[in-house]
């Protein structure tokens, strides 16, 4: 018994000492500066300590074997050391700065975002309906941003020296194949969509994500609202038509409907067009949109559909004919778009969607008839994984399917048909890498294969952003972008290549205290432009990809809604230097749709005593080039400058009613967009000409808007 007790006394201190392990080390940041107050502990135990002013820590533990040592500190990423506890001595640990999604760096080169959830909101959806001169058209509102050129006889988006066909539109990530209403030549078009159905707009003037393709210049991303805030009915009565909308909510599901009817006949009867136009039947359209949403615990399903029927009958002056040339058009467009997103565990998400569009045009030009039928669809699936606050990965695949048929019958009854079928397959992968709160990197790549062109391309994309201070940051972006030649070319010849553009962008942005400033310099290098040897693309034209070009410039943007109470204004300025040798150009020249200088000033002021918002918008564009056949130089002359001063006034009758009045080009500037020259010279050997002045350059608009809402606190003041 005595021996046993002695053994116990001898071995007890040895066992006690072997169970005590000292854990120690030093914690610093990535600049070797000591971090005071960091928590250091063994996971699953109470053993731990805090670092002192020198970043040092030490504590004892009875734990043995493999353990996890956790080091955590506010504003830093947690750090883990895994191993045998006896090795946790004199550790040298560096903590990485945590990424702050609210104040950290963002990747913004080439991109304007809008909406309540965007980090940089420079143009909200409601700006579309409250900007003077926009008349509720999202394209007209976007034309007040830098990088765009107002081409008043067209109405579509022309971005940084690119044609309108170089910009593509997407709804909830899916392609819209005919985003603009059909119209006559030299008569501006409008977008097909109601701005009230969308929660946000992302307008990329260059260097856009690898998720999107087939656009040499830019993409416009429209995102439908996820969950409406209230049930309501909207009624509008306008000088050119009427509209009706309703939103119904039941549980986690909702349905929004919008319908509108437009007819310019009463307007033309009151103020007839006098610029070489005779409306036999003014523009008339009926359109409807619907968005269905179903929100699950971890999922979101959306179904969007839009329908538009429009027709017109117009006679237009033509210098080559004694009488006016008659043009008749009937257009029908039906579009469906569905998307489903599911959020898995471990920060995985999967998004799938599909869109399909049917578009028909029945056209009459004097005795000739042209019928076009186009069916297009887009199927897409993508996955996203957030591995940490510093790294995420976005990848997916998609296919675009198009079938286009055109029939032409001349006045003698001769028929001619053209068309094409195409499947365009694409895959993409992109990652956001946040190196710190001040430095971020986006890397992406996209590949595309066209069955029509029988060609494959690879497009790298990269963007870098650095944030030196709280409000400002610098960004760089580079990318290659490809686009299939336009339908009016590939319907005749598909033995061509993708057209190509490479973008180089340098951006500085300041956002803070109600102010936004952006300065962006860019260079675009065009290659493989399609050229042909006739005035217009024809069946017997000779087509090549020998064209090229460039576009460079500087865009400036300033918005301020804090300096003066009740005043919100923004100023946009763009400088553009561009030339291209494409289409039927005989040499490199600046195209007619490009202005060297563009300026927009938009103001909105709330007058509390009058319960009114008053707004002015002024747009300026320097003269656009045109070709004078009386001169040996090509595209060497310019039109007069474009000027437009517009005014709007919105009066709040009560919480649910607004009276709205708008005048575009209130000073009546005679804007000339181009000149048409005679095909043959006169007796003196001179080619006569006529000025092209769009019929809708000046107009006034009166509207009454009434919202009947289930939310008694809701009022139209929020919309102003």
Automatic annotation (TrEMBL):
Keywords, alphabetical: Cell outer membrane, Membrane, Receptor, Signal, TonB box, Transmembrane, Transmembrane beta strand, Transport
Family according to the record: Belongs to the TonB-dependent receptor family.
A GO molecular function held by the record: siderophore uptake transmembrane transporter activity
InterPro entries assigned to the protein according to its UniProt record, in alphabetical order: Beta-barrel_TonB, Beta-barrel_TonB_sf, CarboxyPept-like_regulatory, Plug_dom, TonB-dep_rcpt-like
Protein name according to UniProt: TonB-dependent receptor
GO BP: siderophore transmembrane transport
Pfam families: CarbopepD_reg_2 (PF13715), Plug (PF07715), TonB_dep_Rec_b-barrel (PF00593)
Boundaries of every TonB-dependent receptor plug domain copy: 120-214
Signal peptide: 1-19
Domain of life assignment: Bacteria
Membrane topology category: Multi-pass membrane protein
């Amino acid at each position: 018994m005595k021996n046993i007790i002695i053994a116990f006394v001898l071995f007890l201190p040895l066992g006690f000492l072997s169970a005590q392990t000292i854990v120690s080390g030093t914690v610093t940041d990535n600049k070797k500066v000591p971090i005071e107050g960091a928590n250091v502990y063994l996971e699953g135990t109470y053993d731990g300590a805090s670092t002192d002013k020198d970043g040092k820590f030490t504590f004892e533990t009875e734990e043995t074997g493999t353990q996890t040592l956790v080091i955590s500190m506010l504003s830093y990423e947690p750090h883990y050391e895994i191993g045998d506890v006896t090795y946790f001595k004199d550790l040298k640990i560096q903590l990485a700065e945590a990424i702050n999604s609210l104040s950290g760096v963002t990747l913004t080169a080439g991109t304007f975002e809008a909406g309540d959830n965007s980090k940089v909101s420079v143009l909200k959806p409601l700006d579309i309906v409250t900007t003077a001169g926009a008349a509720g058209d999202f394209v007209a509102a976007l034309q007040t941003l830098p990088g765009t050129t107002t081409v008043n006889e067209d109405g579509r988006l022309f971005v940084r020296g690119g044609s309108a066909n170089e910009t593509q539109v997407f709804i909830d990530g899916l392609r819209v194949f005919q985003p603009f209403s059909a119209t006559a030549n030299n008569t501006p078009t409008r977008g097909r969509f109601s701005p009230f159905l969308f929660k946000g707009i992302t307008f990329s003037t260059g260097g856009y994500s690898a998720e999107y393709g087939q656009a040499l210049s830019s993409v416009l991303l429209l995102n439908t609202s996820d969950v409406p805030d209230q049930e309501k009915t909207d009624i509008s009565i306008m000088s050119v038509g009427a509209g009706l909308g309703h939103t119904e909510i039941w549980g986690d599901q909702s349905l929004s409907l919008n319908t509108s009817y437009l007819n310019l006949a009463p307007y033309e009867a009151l103020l007839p067009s006098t610029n070489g136009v005779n409306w036999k039947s003014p523009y008339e359209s009926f359109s409807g949109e619907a968005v269905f949403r179903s929100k699950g615990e971890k999922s979101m399903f959306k179904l969007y559909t839009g329908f538009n029927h429009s027709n017109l009958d117009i006679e237009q002056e033509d210098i080559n004919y004694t009488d006016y040339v008659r043009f008749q058009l009937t257009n029908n467009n039906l579009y469906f778009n569905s998307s489903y997103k599911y959020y898995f565990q471990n920060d995985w998400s999967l998004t799938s969607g599909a869109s399909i569009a049917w578009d028909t045009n029945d056209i009459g030009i004097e005795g000739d008839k042209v019928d076009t039928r186009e069916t297009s669809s887009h199927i897409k699936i993508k996955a996203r994984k957030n591995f940490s606050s510093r790294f995420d990965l976005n990848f997916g695949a998609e296919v675009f399917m198009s079938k286009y048929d055109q029939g032409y019958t001349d006045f003698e009854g001769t028929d001619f048909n053209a068309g094409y079928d195409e499947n365009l397959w694409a895959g993409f992968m992109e990652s956001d890498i946040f190196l710190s709160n001040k430095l971020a990197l986006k890397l992406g790549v996209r590949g595309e294969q066209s069955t029509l062109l029988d060609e494959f391309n690879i497009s790298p994309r990269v963007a870098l952003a650095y944030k030196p201070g709280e409000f400002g940051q610098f960004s760089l972006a580079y990318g290659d972008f490809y686009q299939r030649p336009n339908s009016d070319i590939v319907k005749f010849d598909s033995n061509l290549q993708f057209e190509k553009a490479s973008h180089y962008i340098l951006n500085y942005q300041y956002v803070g205290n109600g102010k936004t400033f952006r300065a962006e310099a860019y260079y675009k290098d065009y290659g493989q432009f399609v050229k042909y040897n006739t005035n217009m693309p024809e069946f017997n034209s000779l087509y090549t990809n020998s064209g090229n070009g460039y576009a460079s410039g500087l865009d400036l943007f300033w918005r301020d809604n804090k300096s003066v109470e009740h005043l919100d204004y923004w100023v946009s300025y763009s400088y553009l230097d561009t030339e291209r040798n494409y289409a039927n150009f005989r040499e490199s020249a600046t195209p007619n749709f490009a202005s060297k200088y563009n300026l927009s000033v938009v103001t909105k002021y709330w007058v509390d005593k009058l319960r009114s918002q008053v707004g002015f918008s002024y747009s300026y564009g320097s003269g656009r080039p045109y070709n004078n056949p009386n001169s040996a130089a090509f595209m060497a002359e310019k039109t007069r400058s474009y000027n437009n001063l517009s005014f709007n006034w919105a009066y709040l009758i009560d919480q649910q009613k607004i009276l709205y009045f708008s005048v575009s080009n209130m000073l009546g500037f005679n804007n000339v967009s181009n000149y048409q020259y005679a095909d043959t010279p006169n007796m003196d050997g001179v080619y006569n000409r006529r000025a092209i002045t769009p019929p809708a350059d000046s107009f006034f608009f009166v509207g009454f808007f009434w919202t009947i809402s289930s939310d008694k606190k809701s009022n139209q003041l929020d919309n102003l």
